[in-house]
Amino acid sequence: MEGNKLAFESIDAYISNFPPEVQEKLETLRKVIQESAPEATEKISYQMPTFALHGNLVHFAAYERHIGFYPAPSGIRAFEHELAEYKGAKGSVQFPMEKPLPYELISKIVKFRAAENIEKAEEKLKKKKKG
A Pfam family name for this chain (predicted)? Predict the structure, then answer.
């Protein structure tokens, strides 16, 4: 690792690194993701909390002024109208720290990504059986 960056072993360790009000937002976000994709597993990837289901599903991270949510480019494209009020990029969106997180929208995005990853995994399996 470069400089004084921390290497996190778990999502709990990641979240515990922040002030209580940020921890609360991150824990609620984590719970919404868990409830939206109960079969997904937790891990740290790219030094961020990550949920995986047949590959990476979504990542999230806290910064000084926002919470970054990374549902891959497809997750952003599918909900671009609902996400229009937020800053973002091809595969990410920034939720300002001073505003409540849009948990219902996040849940819809996670469910979309879970369905997408499951479908990709099933397609892969079909190709393997044919081949």
Answer: DUF1801
Burial class (CB in 10 A: 0-12, 13-18, 19+), 108: middle
- The secondary structure of the chain as a DSSP string is --TT----SSHHHHHTTS-HHHHHHHHHHHHHHHHHSTT-EEEEETTEEEEESSSEEEEEEE-SSEEEEE-HHHHHHHTHHHHTTSEEETTEEEEETTS---HHHHHHHHHHHHHHHHHHHHHHHHHHHH-
pLDDT value at 3 more than 50: no
**Whole-number Cα distances in Å, 95 to 61, 69, 111, 117:** 10, 8, 19, 24
87-96 confidence digits (pLDDT tens): 999 999 999 9
